[in-house]
Design brief:
elongated
């Protein structure tokens, strides 16, 4: 709250974000797990999709994802 004396909107936005998400941010230090695995899977799917160059057959696309993730 020391920064409220300054007229910097970045600090106000940061402070507002922290106060809105305070419980979730503090809980992230207490729990031993993250969503890193899920984010990695999503990233791999996006890479496959980007490299697919418009695969028209959804079943092939699905099979490719399942093959890479296996």
């Amino acid at each position: 709250m020391l920064f409220y004396g300054y007229n910097l909107p970045e600090f106000h936005d940061c402070f507002r974000a922290f106060t809105n998400w305070q419980r979730e941010i503090l809980n992230s230090f207490d729990v031993p797990y993250t969503n890193g695995y899920t984010e990695g899977v999503n990233n791999k799917i996006k890479v496959i999709k980007r490299n697919a160059y418009g695969i028209r057959n959804f079943e092939r696309f699905r099979n490719r994802i399942l093959h890479v993730m296996a």
